[in-house]
Amino acid sequence: MKTALLALAAASALTLLPGCATFDRSATAAREEMLAQIQAEPRGNYFVGRRYFKNDYKFWGYVRKPGEPWSAAKMVMFNENKHLAPDREGGTLGMDNGYEYKLSGYFSGATVYEPASNGFYPEFVLTGYQLRNATPAPIFSNGPAALDPSKRYIVTPY
User: Is 134 left (phi over 0), alpha (psi -120 to 50) or beta?
Assistant: First the structure.
């Protein structure tokens, strides 16, 4: 009886493996497509930003130069004296969690302390934005869990 149960458990586990392999291949393919799109981005005087909203933190998200991978992006604090962040302008904080933007602005050179995370982040002076994608490819290795606003951990892009 014990041998029969072990054999059944092993057979059940094997039926799950093809699904896992398919998921990994599709995730890898999506990542490779995203990296190719990043390489093809026109260079210029703009930045690419990915909103990363957390209930307890006040940083805005990740910002990178065009053509650079997300692993090179910097977590930033927005200076909104010239232009409000998209979600603040819309009146609903965090509604754009995970969205990708083309950003106009510049790094001021200042570093801003964010007390909830006990972190120091570069200040990005926002002068404008354009929504690029409301459902972009994932940039975090742990997928959707990284975007959960209630989770108090900060994930870096890969």
Answer: alpha
For the chain, domain boundaries: 1-40, 43-147
- Give 66: exposed, middle or buried? Use CB within 10 Å, 0-12, 13-18, 19+: middle
pTM: 0.81
Which residue do the tokens 């057979």 mark? 11
**C-alpha angle 156-40-135 in degrees, rounded to nearest 5:** 50
CB atoms within 10 A of CB 81: 9
What is the rounded (10 degree) CA torsion for 121, 106, 68, 90? Answer: 80
Q: Which residue(s) pair with 74 in the sheet?
A: 63
Q: Encode the chain (158 residues) as per-residue pLDDT tens digits.
A: 544 444 444 444 444 444 444 445 676 787 788 888 888 888 999 999 999 999 999 999 999 999 999 999 999 999 999 999 999 999 999 999 999 999 999 999 999 999 999 999 999 999 999 999 999 989 998 877 899 999 998 999 99
Element (H, E) at 78: strand 74-79
Burial of 137 (0-12, 13-18, 19+ CB in 10 A): middle
